[in-house]
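Students often ask why we bother predicting the structure of a whole assembly rather than each chain alone. The short answer is interfaces. A chain on its own may look different once its partners are present, and contacts between molecules only exist in the joint model. In this exercise we take two input lines together and write out one structure for the complete complex. Read the inputs first and try to guess which parts will touch.
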Amino acid sequence: MTKPEFGVNFEAYFLGPKGENYDFYEKLLKETLKDHIHWRKAFHADTSEDFITDADKRRADFRKSQEKIEDTLHRLTELLKKNQPFFSPRYIGHMNWETMAAPLIAYFSAALYNPNNVAKAGSTGTSDLEIEVGKDFLKLFGFDEIKGWGHICTGGTIANMEALWMARNMKVIPVVLKEMLKTFKIKDKLSTIPTKKLLKCFNPGEILDLKDLVLAKIKKAVQDDKKVENTFEHIDMQERGLIWEGKGIDIGVVFLPETKHYSLKKAMDLLGLGRQNACFVPVDKNYRMDMKKLREMIFEVSRKRPILAVVGVVGSTEESSVDEIDQIIEIRKELQEKKDMGFHIHIDAAYGGYVRSLFLDQNGNFMNKEQLAEQLKLFGIIGDKKERREVSWPHKEVFKAFAAMPEADTITVDPHKLGYILYPAGGIAMKDKRMRESIQTFAPYVFPRPQEGEPDALIGAYILEGSKPGAAAAAVWTAHRIMPLDITGYGKLIGETIDGAQALWYGLTHSSPFTFENNIKIRVYPVIKPDINIVNYAFNFEGNRGLEKMNRLTSFISDEILGYLPRNGKLILDRKFIVSTTDFTIEEYENSPLPFLQRIGFSKEEWNKIRTVKIIRSVIMSPYLTPDYVDVNYVQMFIDYLREEITRNSEQILKILS
Amino acid sequence: MTKPEFGVNFEAYFLGPKGENYDFYEKLLKETLKDHIHWRKAFHADTSEDFITDADKRRADFRKSQEKIEDTLHRLTELLKKNQPFFSPRYIGHMNWETMAAPLIAYFSAALYNPNNVAKAGSTGTSDLEIEVGKDFLKLFGFDEIKGWGHICTGGTIANMEALWMARNMKVIPVVLKEMLKTFKIKDKLSTIPTKKLLKCFNPGEILDLKDLVLAKIKKAVQDDKKVENTFEHIDMQERGLIWEGKGIDIGVVFLPETKHYSLKKAMDLLGLGRQNACFVPVDKNYRMDMKKLREMIFEVSRKRPILAVVGVVGSTEESSVDEIDQIIEIRKELQEKKDMGFHIHIDAAYGGYVRSLFLDQNGNFMNKEQLAEQLKLFGIIGDKKERREVSWPHKEVFKAFAAMPEADTITVDPHKLGYILYPAGGIAMKDKRMRESIQTFAPYVFPRPQEGEPDALIGAYILEGSKPGAAAAAVWTAHRIMPLDITGYGKLIGETIDGAQALWYGLTHSSPFTFENNIKIRVYPVIKPDINIVNYAFNFEGNRGLEKMNRLTSFISDEILGYLPRNGKLILDRKFIVSTTDFTIEEYENSPLPFLQRIGFSKEEWNKIRTVKIIRSVIMSPYLTPDYVDVNYVQMFIDYLREEITRNSEQILKILS
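Now the answer. The structure tokens for the assembled complex follow.
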């Protein structure tokens, strides 16, 4: 086993698929509980209060209550065993693997105190941890640590909603400023720009600068800061909503790739924008947003309407594809030059955000391509000498996309995905902290306006959520302190999963067909070589040109052989491998699945007829898939197992053909 | 100590202010971890995989990583000690007390499996627990268990947003149906009703029935169900947003009491409705929504605009006041009869929801007034024979309000408040599960449309959030299984806190003045006798008619004597009591604070000049405030401590006067 001698040894970070680190973590868990109890006892230790006495404990109803508690927890632990074995390299389904043990202990430890990070008054011990984590996000994405801001939320869905909410509310600010100039009778060239134009022509950074500039000018003239601020707040989007004096205000179109997470559609609905104001951009053969089409669509729309935002996905939910963020930046520049128009760039890196740590050296600097290739090779992270796979990661487009992330306005990132931290732990980072004021709500009992307190302690005034576990901040903080957000920490761990995904892709691509009697053969077809670590594939009978039969075959294999539910008397824990599935439908993907289908022999007509293709999806979050850390080749084992099971089920499988 | 011999003995449920139940819960915690490790080991136990070997553990980088983990967790536990001592009866600040220990262990235990309750595929062991919890909510609020639906979310903020989101989206359904009748050229009397009228005239239940009825009619005529459904989804609020063909569609006004939680203002912004479409209803002298004014305002608005929703608060954040839900129901009936108009009724019972368990007998039936009074007296829950306080809880208005809750449409409830469960655990219950379809979003990889699966397993398709901890469901489920949602369980525990709040209110009201030399006296003035268990009070110099001086005095006492931050070299843990504060401002409360201020000697002019009154707010979540369970009278101790500290700080205090 070649285990590189650099950076963290991530085998110490998990309980282990067989609970190998049980003793170590049990000790820490017990210490943490004991330590908390000491803290409680130290509080007014000198006083005579005696809450629960030995006599109390001897009462019959006390014992009965204890029995009830014990029984219930035992029942629970039994029920929990119906869950999926995320901890195993044999679980290659959804975005789950075992989470690091220390963040779990940190969560437990903090939950004993149960702080509420909505405001510092309820979280004197954990608000600061969240602020540190916010800075970690800024560093990870190359945002300025002073100008930017980041915080934890429940998950990527909330982060995506919050980003679009800020984008929506900021969009009208220039119009609000124009109205204010009129109200206060102040001359400024802004007043001469038509409202329609004002909604079109700025990027978020420009809007925020403009707001500062114009409000300062008005304040200087009016000599009553509070009045000016109140007036602003009285006519902005927060106050007015989307309908102004009975009329709808057109703040424009949001461009989403077909591979968008469904939460972005949800956000369009939630925010009152309506899904019809989202334009879905087709993806290219790598399932990345098609930049040529995006450019065309933007320029087409720009003739009539504002562009509110473009969302690029870094690590799509189904394919782990990485949109070319650098190209989105380029298109924005071009649009600005040619048409004097701007828009918000949001990156949904809920899945792929932590992958950026692979590109950062020990000092947190983004490496150039040569440095990166050298490091990956030197430390043997991706690519395995024992096989014929070549070190070809990352694609150059993927490299450029990660390099360009600091130029975006907002970024969603999920510690509870590739951060290997327990739920709930989502996050958002923004380039410019002034953005948060566009969605602020104050409440005197918990966060008075910042002049009266420290603004950074008022997390809850600037976010979508309210009460939130300080324990989640403790968990993420702990994870980031023990696992550096660079190539020596998360990079190394995630690199191994990319290695595993590449190995699985290679193994499936090069596997010989599964052969039945009568020379009937089944082949497995990976959809793309993944940008990160999700492998999609479908099964087909060689020569079959009927898409429905292929779908039935893939469904049979996924449900009967690789499914997550008990089947034929087999318990979940008897499953040798577990995958997840999805459907690429014409509704969600238009014709994007066509190149794949045509490559494996289907016609466009067949696609138009069936309109959906069943896909098996394996998210590789385990570092154990390749034999670098364990003397087992899971990729080979998986293919062998498939062969065995396909043969064993040949009767049922052949029925699909007839 | 008079400890009633009925129901659960809640002293067994907590770790205890001095960690008295440490041994019991440490054992359960260890068992749960061990049990999980067994589960891991049992998964393909026969195979030879050896992930982390003894040799691995001996490596230098493994030990180094372990040290880093250990050090970090030790650093964390030190930092956590900066948190507030929620566990103590001396903490009478925000809505926090110690949480039950078993739900915390349940959270830990489930987090070892780390299920994601967004969809059953990721939570085969915990989705069902959330569905059970949803049913618990329905029972608690008297909703029909078959027709209704409930689920867990991150907190009350999200629940309030989700409720108003559903209300918003449902409001346009009659108009959508009218358009569909036209599209499919089907005759129906609905087509003859003007759009403006359609937006006005229905309650949510009627809208849902109408949808079923009209869609069934169209389906029957068109003979293509899918086409009909697609058409509906293509022109509803989710798709169109708030702006229809460039025009704003007026879906009306939301009525909120001045005591509303700030999340409702946030929701107005988030949903694109704008805060200006919220009407804030003044509160009466008990800080309950003024029903006379609500009625007037509704009838006034109804002449021009639709009413979208009325939100009643059960347990206001600052005062624990309970709005008269029964009166809201009455007003809706009257509006329907007289004006043929309807609206959505949402109850924000984030704080007060669990209080309803006090009104339910052991069989879950809502007791009548006599039964309740008898039970409260019999079991000595509220009112203490040793003092002169009389058993006067609940006010008859409060009783009626809780009785009427089953007639609302949606209810927010927070297990992480009076459910004594760790963060995050919010919840929502709805009377009619068809509502959830108004905000549904599907995603093939995780929740295909329900015809292909069990709809109840697709929690994530019908909620605001995405990925969510199955561990939170395990925690709430455990709490509900060990602590019945009736008078023998939660009722008994919460009853003791109400008793404590009444005692504190009584003690403050009847305390003799704090006297200085020169016959200067300070008095403490409770604002109201609380509906539940939050006591608000302010301090004033006897005879002082200047509001600013009173505010400065109250601020001095709250910050210097009762504050939550270290001060004058004193650590938090040296604080003898800790409170929270708030400001009742004219912006939030208009003239509602006036009756209180006038009662204690301030003029209307003074209020209009100063516009804010500083209030100390004590949320009583500890059952130990009265000497029923411990031989200490904390109320008396608190007043004595105040007296002592006010004397000790007399020099600084007297400066305020000069």
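Check your guess against this: The first helix of chain A runs from residue 22 to 42.
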